[in-house]
Amino acid sequence: MKIHFLGAASTVTGSKFLVEHNETRILVDCGLYQGLKQLRELNWEPLSVLPSSIDYVLLTHGHLDHCGWLPKLVKEGFHGKIFCTSPTKQIARLILLDSAKIQEEEAERANKENYSKHNPAEPLYTVDEAERVTPLFRVVDKELEVKLTDDIFFSFFYASHIIGACSIELHVEDKILIFSGDIGQDDDVLLYPPVKPKKADYVFMESTYGNRIHPAEDTKLLLESFIRNTVENNGTVLIPSFAVERVQTLMFLLWQLKKENKLPDIPLIIDTPMGINVLEVFQNSTAWHKLTPKECEEMCRIFTLISDYKETIDTIFNPKPKVVIAASGMMTGGRILSYMERYIEKPETTLIVVGYQAEGTRGRKMIDGAEEIKIYGKYYPVKAKILELEGLSAHGDQKDLLNWLADLEEKPKKVFLIHAENIAADELRLKIAETYQFDVTVPFLGQIVEI
């Protein structure tokens, strides 16, 4: 059996892991690269294996860095089945269509304003190409064994992180391979703790925060403080947010603060059509999270939900204080950029970062103290306050990751640390070796391992 590390090896994005056994090829995740230019350029490169030769895709969850390359895979010849949970199918479809729409719009804008080096600029894939992925999805309940061949079967188990997210237990002949996907926090605001694997010969484990412990901060209190201070200065609060899970978590916290009369009387605005659509997924998937349908309904009532871009423009040019939650979470695209064009130069603005920011993204540059930021070919001075809420991460920290391994009944033959920058992965490697005496390695991009 061979494992091809086609993505998310020595980097956080572009998750793709090919399992090759006899005549069967299984791709675990099919993510888009984000962040650094040299990584983004890999999205345009062909896979090292023909997509038409891949039999199945197993999808851990619907984030872009895990599903965002599926339209390219299908465009280049894949015609097999894509297995995932029901919420993941719904989320992935929303994210792929949104990604395609943004790419089409940005290519059109780049051509119109002539700020791209490519002539003409083109989207990586179109909305029509993203639509072609949906018929290939096959929904699987968690904990259900699915037979792929005579000697290969798999099952999903709950990973927390975002709604529908699962880890994968893959049996190939007499070997058990565990692919963690992204692992959530043990004490997430909206989701249940991740389920821990019991048996594994080989573990492929995310290590995004392998070198960090989330601060023991009162997230709700900090959010209240940031908003009050901004409103007192007659400013606007911008929260770039991932449309899946993070928007809903922020809504939940703001709803609690509102019920406790701890927020000033200002508009609370959700300006992300995809985030609004995800609310419906939440309401239809109550077994996956802690909120009841009634709580979902009550929570939504206090927010102004914006889908029409004309309303976005009206909101941007309304000078009154407000809280705006808009995608994208790493500020790589989406409606948050339109707000930033107007507000990032204003000292009374507060921009709150609420999630992981990959290398090379605008979000990483902002928290690293960039004095100016480039948006649609133009540079803007950064005069707004840039603050972080680290406790809202959808990824478990080093402590959570170590705990995720705690129930293994026997030592795995090897643990591969993936989905991390090298420093984070290497520190977690040392911690796992010290805590459990497991054999741990950090694979490199393009590596092929025989097991």
What does this 3D model show about the protein?
The mean pLDDT is 95. The strands form 4 sheets. Strands 6-5-4-3-2-1-22 form a 7-stranded mixed sheet. Strands 7-8-9-10-11-20-21 form a 7-stranded mixed sheet, covered by helices on one side. The chain is built from 14 helices and 22 strands. It is globular, with a radius of gyration of 21 Å. It is an alpha/beta fold. The protein has helices at 37-40, 64-67, 70-75, 86-113, 127-131, 219-232, 246-259, 273-284, 293-301, 309-316, 336-343, 362-367, 398-404, 422-436, and strands at residues 2-5, 17-21, 24-28, 56-58, 81-84, 137-139, 146-149, 152-158, 166-172, 175-179, 202-206, 237-240, 268-271, 304-305, 323-326, 350-353, 372-375, 378-381, 385-388, 414-418, 440-441, 448-450.
Strand order of the largest sheet: 6-5-4-3-2-1-22
Radius of gyration: 21 Å
The best one-word shape is globular
What does the average pLDDT come to? 95
Strand content: 15-25%
**Biggest beta sheet summary:** 7 strands, mixed
Helix and strand composition category:
alpha/beta
Count of separate DSSP helical elements = 14
